[in-house]
Amino acid sequence: MADENNPSGGGNGGGSGGGTGASNGKNGKVGLVERVTTGVKDDIQALKTDIPAKAKEQIEGLKDPTKTQVYTSIFRHKHDDTPRNRALGVLSNVFLHLHPAKINRDAVRYSYTWGMGGITFYLFIILTYTGVLLMFYYHPSKVQAFRDVLYLEHDVPFGKILRNMHRWAAHLMVIGVWLHMFRVFLTGSYKKPREFNWNIGVLLLVFTLLLSFTGYLLPDDQLGFWAVTVGTNMARATPLLGHEGPFGSMLGMTPYNDVRFGLLGGSIVDANALLRSYIWHCIGIPIVASVLMIVHFWRVRKDGGISGPAPVVLEAEADKPRRGPKAAGE
Amino acid sequence: MDWRQLWEICSAPDNVPIVGLIPLLAFYIYLAVKQARANDVLIEQLEADPAMAKTHHRKTWPFKPGWAKEVHVWPFLLRIEFLAAIIITIILMIWSITLNAPLEEPANPNLTMNPAKAPWYFLGLQEMLVYFDPWIAGVVMPTMIIIGLMVIPYIDTNPLGSGYYTWKQRKFSISTFMFGFVILWVAMIIIGTFIRGPGWQWFWPGQTWDHNRLIYEVNRDLPDLFGITSNMAKIVFGAIVVGGFYLVGGGAVYSLFRRKMPKDFQRMSLLQFSLMAFLWLTMIALPLKMALRLLWHIKYVWITPWFNV
What we know:
The structure holds 2 protein chains of 2 kinds. By secondary structure, chain A is mostly helical. In chain A, about 65% of the residues lie in helices and about 0% in strands.
């Protein structure tokens, strides 16, 4: 088709060229108009052939989207099922590259890890997501807080399920962290060389509990108010730093300058305490916990991946230096 | 038997996680014990037969020479993670549709909730308040728990049992952690949630919560039992009892290690051993103090003008 059109287009151009030459002698202006119209005609003729050709090319290109520039700029490797591509799929993805490309064949067994660390992290993501949505409807002030929760429950579309999910995911996360720690202990995974990562894990446990605790006050209802009152009353009794604690009053501690005052921003659980727990809950602790999580995951990899299931070591071999998990028989 | 009361406690939205935690914990303990047993059997076999130990596969999972030792994360691990994420999402969705998060009346400082309970995961600490003063139960003990957990890798010098479930090779550390987590932490939470009613009084499951119940409990202090009356004598007496507990207890731990775990003791430095003994005895002090209180109505052991233990 293009072959047929091109020579005929060329012939047209030649014909109009002769016409302009004849009119040129009579009037220059007429020549200009003619030149423009023939030029436009020429363009239209060319368009008629170019657009279908381009469109065809486009459609041909769409048949294999993996060859488009957009696609290849996002995905850096092919997806045919080869070992290389399987590894690249994990390594060239920022979210998946937490994993190594390959792991111990027994490490994927659920019975060893219980999957609790991963589940805890997934729950943290759910909590961040639902938490951000809840923040759109919540004002951390004494006047508004409780009404905002009522509004969420009764008027906001899907508000009730949003709040429910946030609360139950928080409880599940606490349980998940405990079970994760329980598993890590029972498999002796805190032993050399993972001592430091166990410590990061203990801190993450503390921050998980604090996250949950600071969130408890936010609905500003009786449940949260008294739970936080009971909880922070303990701080009165802090040795040296609390006004009711041992040696506290000797150091000049009063209800207005002790550690509890610092936690609550006042001597009772009131507007300042609400604002403080809101900021700790939504900004302060999540940032610290996220940083610790990054370190935690990084160290899992740097300390040699997950701890097992490792080959068993016999008592007689206990004090002999061993290199890595590759023992006899594996 | 007040079934309605029992149902009210068990179905309180914030108590549901604990009701769920009990079977969950039981299941995972079962899973761990099952694998520990299998490993222990294998260890026994290999220790009995050194020739076998040199060649035999050191895991309870099946393995044949031609098999790859490693598998690709994609798809063998990622599909499991994806599945886990879907299952957790579904559980959360169903839970959130069927059960509403609690919302009580607006906060009112003039209307005290009875019982006023901390969030469920802190109820173990709140239960401890019965047996210790707030500075111990609320500040010192939680700090000791955190520090104690953090030093575990540095005081557990036993190189065995790293990366596999076992009971035989780590009897002391596993029984200690089990005791601390299952008995002292989880069981205390269960007591705090299901047993403690108005006035933080003991109500058996199914017993009606009587808001007017009064218990006349005469608590004595340990020095009183010995007829000690002067303040100075009480200070000295308490210091001797508490110090004696740690000294005698330390000796008992030493004796236990020397006889039953000589290798572990050999590996430990003086600092490691004394730190371990101190933390272990502090943990044991809690159930001891509970027994003193519940069985003999003894409130304080050590009385001083500044603090009481």
